[in-house]
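Field notebook, page 161. I keep forgetting to write these up properly, so this time I am using the form the group agreed on. The chain and the ligand, magnesium ion, are recorded exactly as supplied. Prediction of the bound pose follows.
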Amino acid sequence: MSEVRMGLGWDVHRIAPGRPMMIGGVAIPGPFGFEGHSDADVLAHAVTDALLGAAALGDIGMHFPDTDARWKGADSLQLLAHALGLVREQGFTLVNVDTTVILERPKLKDFRLPIRQKLAATLGLPLERVSVKFKTAEQVGPVGEGRSAEAQAIVAIRTRD
Ligand code: C5P
Ligand code: MG
């Protein structure tokens, strides 16, 4: 019988003018975006940590240190695909992914389908196993004041048998 494991991921990035805003591999148009060493894709990073966590393979900074020039401006979906490969090497199959992006503005709901499609394609999952939810922080705290964005992810993996 296959064994199921869970993994949890979280990430935060500062918001800055003139930066791209990548969320799950989709560029969100607007005057501000996320600061970071890579493309600062807060959602891809949370999902990557969730995947690594499910297989107890450490965390994103261990596999992709931000001091390593190889990852400067990196496409975070490539990091995610790499993490998936590591999880598969341990004999696991991904079951599903559920996520929340917490961002005051802009509204993201029109981007839900393209983000789900990008994540599903990267993870080799059917669309119905990839969930993407959005929340504001009700104008409270750094996220609510528009200074940062956060993402949370949980994944289930199972052993192949
Ligand atoms: O945070 P709040 O509960 O007010 O969010 C209401 C709805 O607005 C969410 O369920 C989500 O669908 C949408 N939303 C969005 N983009 C955001 C934040 C929330 O589309 N940045
Ligand atoms: Mg990050």
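OBSERVATIONS:
- DSSP finds five helices and seven strands in the chain.
- Residues 11, 13, 36, 42, 45 surround magnesium ion (ligand 2) (CB under 6 Å).
FOLLOW-UP: compare against the apo run.
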